[in-house]
Automatic annotation (TrEMBL):
<dbReference type="GO" id="GO:0016787">
    <property type="term" value="F:hydrolase activity"/>
</dbReference>
<dbReference type="InterPro" id="IPR036873">
    <property type="entry name" value="Rhodanese-like_dom_sf"/>
</dbReference>
<dbReference type="GO" id="GO:0050313">
    <property type="term" value="F:sulfur dioxygenase activity"/>
</dbReference>
<dbReference type="GO" id="GO:0006749">
    <property type="term" value="P:glutathione metabolic process"/>
</dbReference>
<dbReference type="InterPro" id="IPR036866">
    <property type="entry name" value="RibonucZ/Hydroxyglut_hydro"/>
</dbReference>
<dbReference type="InterPro" id="IPR044528">
    <property type="entry name" value="POD-like_MBL-fold"/>
</dbReference>
<keyword id="KW-0479">Metal-binding</keyword>
<protein>
    <submittedName>
        <fullName>MBL fold metallo-hydrolase</fullName>
    </submittedName>
</protein>
<dbReference type="Pfam" id="PF00581">
    <property type="entry name" value="Rhodanese"/>
</dbReference>
<dbReference type="InterPro" id="IPR001279">
    <property type="entry name" value="Metallo-B-lactamas"/>
</dbReference>
<dbReference type="InterPro" id="IPR001763">
    <property type="entry name" value="Rhodanese-like_dom"/>
</dbReference>
<keyword id="KW-0378">Hydrolase</keyword>
<dbReference type="GO" id="GO:0070813">
    <property type="term" value="P:hydrogen sulfide metabolic process"/>
</dbReference>
<dbReference type="Pfam" id="PF00753">
    <property type="entry name" value="Lactamase_B"/>
</dbReference>
<dbReference type="InterPro" id="IPR051682">
    <property type="entry name" value="Mito_Persulfide_Diox"/>
</dbReference>
<feature type="domain" description="Rhodanese">
    <location>
        <begin position="27"/>
        <end position="125"/>
    </location>
</feature>
<dbReference type="GO" id="GO:0046872">
    <property type="term" value="F:metal ion binding"/>
</dbReference>
């Protein structure tokens, strides 16, 4: 519908920006959401978070109630203030106005779910050495990416194509040149930005060596386990972490001099874990080889988490590739926790291999939207324009197994 298709708003409408809503959710505040889209749209994708209480009541119910003079009867049982949400912020503005007229404290989410999907929040990951490690949070999907900067050089890790200009601008603000655009694996939930960042900056595209076995169809530097990228005085050491996919590779980010060059790992480093270990769960193993190949990858994931990662210091800060709606950010605002804390809190990490495999395979949510096309695009085997790429990845990422920390 166009603006002209909506009735005149029923009262003065307060607005809330997506950035302000994201700040409140990240802080764990109580937030009431009234979503006036249709049920199928809501079920597929809606605003969520650790303090969010959400209700879905379609816009048409409020139109009918206004005609009957019974808007107050439709108001959901939600604590005020209420944030009203729709697809583009137009129907929700009308409903927010009706609620305001009925004496309900309500605000419209400016731009609706479209603007929510366009939001990227940057938060600094704390380190005890001189470097910038910036975490990029996409609240609409829970995707996390990173920029590592030191001494005027930078690397972006797991960038999203939709936000290429943001990474380029942020590096420029830091007076840094982007030397590397890195993917930890072939993503299935979002369209990668490594090639678009490289096109804008002449950065070197870097992928794990195993991406070639999956049919990679563009030029990239392939790194194997133990190889190191140098970014000014910082080092990014590749740590093979198979399980989500065969080629999944984490990167240990630290001070190159303190870490002894290419091979060292010190306390206080940051583990860019990609899709291996999250703050409440672990990765799902079925997006590369399907259900048939999932048991093998789940067993590999168990070895990654209990053997490979066990060799890292307990105070290494794990910065994952995703966060889920129930995750609360640290005091810094970043979604990150020490490896020692996660080993104590994520129940899957204390399971034996057989139990771990069974549990992960029983806890997989629906696959990400359009995952086959997204994988093909990220391998360079399918071409899509920016608009189609943005539409393909809308919705939750679903790259984690569900509930594996419950025991």
């Amino acid at each position: 519908m166009s603006d002209a298709d909506y009735p005149e708003q029923g009262g003065e409408v307060d607005t809330l920006s997506p950035a302000t809503l994201a700040t409140r959710i990240r802080a764990g505040e109580s937030v009431s959401i009234l979503d006036v889209r249709d049920r199928d749209e809501y079920d597929a994708w809606h605003v969520d978070g650790p303090g969010v209480t959400s209700r879905q009541i379609p816009y048409v119910r409020f139109v009918q109630a206004e005609i009957k003079g019974s808007v107050a009867d439709v108001v959901p049982d939600l604590p005020e203030p209420i944030v009203v949400v729709c697809g583009e912020g137009e129907a929700s503005a009308y409903v927010a106005g009706l609620l305001a007229t009925a004496g309900v404290e309500a605000a419209n989410l400016a731009g609706g779910m479209g603007a929510w999907a366009e939001l990227l929040v940057a938060v600094e990951v704390p380190t005890d050495w001189q470097a910038t490690v910036r975490q990029y949070q996409r609240p609409s999907s829970g995707c996390l990416g990173y920029l590592v900067e030191r001494d005027g050089e930078a690397a972006v890790v797991d960038p999203l194509r939709a936000f290429t200009e943001r990474y380029v601008a942020d590096a420029a603000d830091l007076d840094a040149a982007i030397s590397y655009a890195v993917d930890t694996h072939v993503h299935a939930d979002h369209v990668s930005g490594v090639r678009t960042v490289a096109d804008r900056t002449d950065a070197e595209v870097v992928l794990p060596a195993g991406a070639a076995d999956r049919g990679l169809d563009f030029d990239a530097t392939l790194v194997g386990d133990g190889e190191t990228l140098t970014v000014g005085g910082a080092s990014l050491r590749a740590l093979g972490a198979p399980g989500h996919t065969h080629e999944m590779t984490a990167f240990v980010v630290g001070d190159a001099a303190r870490n002894g060059g290419e091979t060292g790992t010190a306390g206080g480093d940051v583990l860019l874990a990609g899709d291996s270990l999250f703050l409440r769960s672990v990765a799902r193993p079925d997006l590369e080889d399907g259900v048939d190949g999932a048991p093998e990858l789940a067993a590999l994931l168990h070895r990654t988490l209990t053997e490979r990662f066990a060799g890292l210091p307990d105070d290494v800060l794990v910065a994952p590739g995703h966060y889920d709606a129930a995750t609360t950010a640290a005091d810094s605002g970043a979604y990150a926790a020490t490896l020692g804390d996660l080993q104590a809190s994520v129940g899957a990490l204390s399971m034996g291999s057989d139990r771990f495999v069974d549990h992960v395979l029983s806890a997989m949510p629906p696959r990400p939207n359009n995952h086959h096309r997204i994988i093909a695009t990220n391998l360079g085997r399918e071409r899509v324009d920016d608009g189609e790429a943005f539409e393909m990845e809308l919705g939750p990422n679903n790259c984690a197994a569900a509930g594996v920390d419950a025991d």
